[in-house]
Amino acid sequence: MTSAKRLNPLICLLIVLRALTTTEKVNSAINTELLNSMCLLSFESEMSLAEIIPPKEMAAFTCKCFTKKIATSSSLQAAKEDCKKEASEKFNI
Predict the structure, then answer these.
(1) What percent of the chain has pLDDT over 90?
(2) For residue 18, how many other CB atoms are within 10 A of its CB?
(3) Radius of gyration of the chain measured on its C-alpha atoms
(4) Which among 66, 82, 74, 76 is positioned nearest to 18, based on CA atoms?
(5) What domain count does the chain have?
(6) Three-class DSSP category at 56
(7) Residue 1's pLDDT is what?
(8) Model confidence band, residue 65 (pLDDT cutoffs 50, 70, 90)
(9) Which residue range forms the structural domain that includes residue 86?
(10) Cα–Cα distance for residue pair 22/72, rounded to 1 Å
(11) CA dihedral 63, 67, 73, 79 (to 10 degrees)
């Protein structure tokens, strides 16, 4: 599989995440669940591409961090970078 084909799902996830974060907070519970699900898919994809087997609770920790930061108006990129750093420090990866 080419790297372009591998990136397509990640690009799609970012587009959907961006759309979700710009909608009204009326459906915030639904948005949070969708963000978390998409984060988990993205996390698994990135770990697989990097050929890393993450610690058991790392995905949940990272995605919980991500959804909290998005809920407090962080940008997608800032939330992703901050949570990757926090998870890396917590799980020593």
Answers:
(1) 52
(2) 11
(3) 13
(4) 76
(5) 1
(6) coil
(7) 47
(8) very high
(9) 3-91
(10) 13
(11) 0
Sorted by sequence, the CB contacts under 8 Å of residue 83 that are 6+ apart come out as 62, 63, 65, 66, 69
Q: Following CA atoms 11, 28, 57, 14 in sequence, which dihedral angle do they give, to the nearest 10 degrees?
A: 10
Looking up tokens 């998409």, which residue turns up?
A: 38
The residue type found at 3 is S
Comparing 89 with 29, which gets the higher pLDDT?
89
- pLDDT confidence of residue 4: 47
Average pLDDT of the residues of the chain? 82
Closest CA to 42 of 73, 72, 6: 6
Helices (H), the chain: 3-22, 28-49, 58-71, 76-91
- Residue with the two structure tokens 């907070």: 25
Structure tokens at 52: 């890393």
pLDDT at residue 28 is higher than 90: no
